[in-house]
């Protein structure tokens, strides 16, 4: 149930609009960006629409951000006569590469991500990446909020998934399995967030121990995309088994009692099956559900929408699009 402070915050906005208000200007509209579509995502979007009411239109786009989908959602909000558009990314981390692309498409940053232009996502012969927002679109001011990051709503959602399997929390340990990164600094940042959330879960749920473990990107891929580790050789011998950090955490905690493992995912996207595969031959309790839907995450979305309404217009780059960011030239010191 949405907390009373959230209800009070939106009380004025959720009042039943007059017939004239239904067709008149709206104070703002909300565009929700999701990591992937699914049942949990659809229920979350429906709940946000219900809570915000007809006076605050809500549109949504899920999956890898792209100009056509985002432009289509913006056009619907514009047609609803909103005075401002607030973009709320329902992502685990603000520094996700997909959100950098979204910021470019929305005209918030000048250049698209290098990996999108030069990497596997680039299109042959296409040097300019189109934006969703251009001068021709004449969209109202646009602002974009941060993602969930380490918000307490995530701890509540994790706790719910753990409690679905828990019987005697004081005798049980929990492992929160997250996607790792090839970048060490980013991997440590993710691990730090999971540890903070884990402490909250341990305190609220009174569990014996809650530990965070990351799964390397190669092992976190869906099964049909995983490399064949049995065929890989190196001078130092066979490579370590995928998901080693997760396996070691479960192995150690299993010595002291039951272990519950939950993936740190908003929606099941195939990687949860890869996580579970790394734990074959271990006796564990596994909950492969995503964290959506959850009332605290719904409340977080509504609060971020109200917060983003106060932000200035961020969509300053309203050209037709840019190519990759030009390399920086070193200055010659004389």
Secondary-structure element string: HHEHEHEHHEEHEHEHEHEHE
* Quaternary class: single chain
Category by helix and strand content: alpha/beta
Strand order of the largest sheet: 2-1-3-5
Reported for the largest beta sheet, the result is: 4 strands, parallel
CATH architecture of the largest domain: 3-Layer(aba) Sandwich
State the CATH topology of the largest domain: Rossmann fold
Instruction: Report the average pLDDT across residues.
Output: 85
Q: Helix fraction?
A: 25-40%
Strand content: 5-15%
Low-confidence stretches: 120-125, 223-240
How widely separated are the two ends?
67 Å
C-alpha Rg (nearest Å): 22 Å
- Structurally, the number of domains stands at 2
Please give a handful of descriptors for the protein shown:
alpha/beta, Rossmann fold, four-stranded parallel beta sheet, 10 strands
Description:
The chain is an alpha/beta fold and 334 residues long. The protein folds into two domains: 4-148 and 295-322, Rossmann fold; 165-286, Rossmann fold (3-Layer(aba) Sandwich), CATH 3.40.50. The protein contains eleven helices and ten strands. The chain has helices at 4-9, 19-23, 39-52, 67-79, 97-105, 114-118, 152-163, 184-205, 244-254, 271-277, 295-308, and strands at 29-34, 58-62, 85-90, 129-130, 142-144, 172-179, 209-215, 258-263, 285-286, 321-322. The chain has a four-stranded parallel beta sheet, with helices on both faces. A four-stranded parallel beta sheet has the order 7-6-8-9, with helices on both faces. It is globular, with a radius of gyration of 22 Å.
């Amino acid at each position: 149930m949405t907390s009373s402070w959230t209800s009070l915050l939106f009380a004025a906005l959720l009042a039943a609009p007059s017939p004239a208000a239904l067709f008149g200007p709206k104070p703002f509209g909300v565009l929700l960006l999701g990591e992937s579509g699914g049942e949990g995502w659809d229920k979350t979007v429906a709940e946000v629409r219900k809570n915000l009411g007809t006076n605050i239109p809500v549109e949504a786009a899920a999956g890898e951000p792209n100009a056509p989908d985002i432009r289509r959602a913006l056009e619907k909000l514009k047609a609803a006569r909103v005075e401002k558009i607030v973009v709320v990314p329902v992502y685990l981390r603000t520094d996700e590469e997909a959100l950098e692309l979204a910021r470019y498409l929305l005209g918030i940053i000048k250049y698209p991500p290098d990996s999108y232009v030069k990497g596997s996502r680039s299109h042959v012969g296409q040097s300019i990446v189109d934006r969703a927002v251009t001068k021709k679109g004449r969209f109202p001011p646009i602002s974009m909020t941060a993602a969930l990051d380490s918000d307490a709503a995530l701890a509540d959602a994790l706790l719910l998934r753990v409690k679905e399997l828990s019987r005697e929390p004081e005798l049980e340990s929990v492992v929160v399995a997250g996607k790792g990164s090839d970048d060490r600094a980013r991997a440590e940042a993710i691990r730090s967030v999971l540890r903070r959330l884990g402490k909250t879960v341990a305190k609220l749920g009174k569990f014996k121990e809650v530990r965070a473990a990351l799964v390397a990107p190669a092992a976190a891929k869906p099964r049909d995309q995983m490399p064949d580790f049995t065929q890989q050789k190196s001078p130092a011998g066979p490579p370590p088994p995928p998901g080693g950090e997760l396996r070691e955490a479960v192995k150690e905690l299993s010595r002291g009692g039951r272990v519950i493992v939950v993936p740190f995912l908003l929606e099941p996207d195939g990687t949860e099956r890869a996580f579970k595969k790394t734990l074959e031959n271990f006796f564990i309790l596994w909950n492969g559900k995503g964290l959506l839907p959850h009332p605290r995450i719904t409340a977080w979305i509504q609060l971020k929408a109200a917060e983003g309404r106060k932000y200035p217009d961020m969509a300053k780059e309203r050209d037709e699009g840019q190519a990759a960011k030009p390399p920086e030239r070193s200055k010659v010191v004389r």
